[in-house]
Design a protein that fits this description.
Blueprint: H1 13-23, H2 33-40, H3 45-48, H4 60-91
Length: 92
């Protein structure tokens, strides 16, 4: 599973559930454990609220696939923001 979904290598089984529960919540709060897990690996949890989430499936493999897709999308958004910050610092 980790070979197919490299974004998931940061989490153990229990942490998958914690992160997934935070991602699918309507409001993400700093006091939630999943918020801090996402921050720890370089994600901005508040940006996830702006993303349309795929449906949450009962099948564990489909849930892991969804989680990976969400994290990949988020990772590229964070990377783009970082690149824009670097460019603006260089040009000023």
């Amino acid at each position: 599973m980790y070979e197919i979904y490299p974004e998931l290598t940061d989490f153990s089984y229990e942490q998958f559930q914690i992160v997934e529960s935070v991602i699918y919540k309507i409001e993400i709060e700093e006091k939630q454990a999943g918020y801090h897990l996402l921050k720890y690996i370089g994600f901005e949890p508040t940006l996830l609220q702006q993303v349309k989430m795929p449906p949450k499936y009962d099948n564990e493999n489909e849930r892991l696939e969804n989680l990976n897709k969400i994290l990949i999308t988020q990772r590229s958004a964070v990377d783009d923001l970082e690149e824009m910050k670097k460019d603006s610092i260089v040009h000023t």
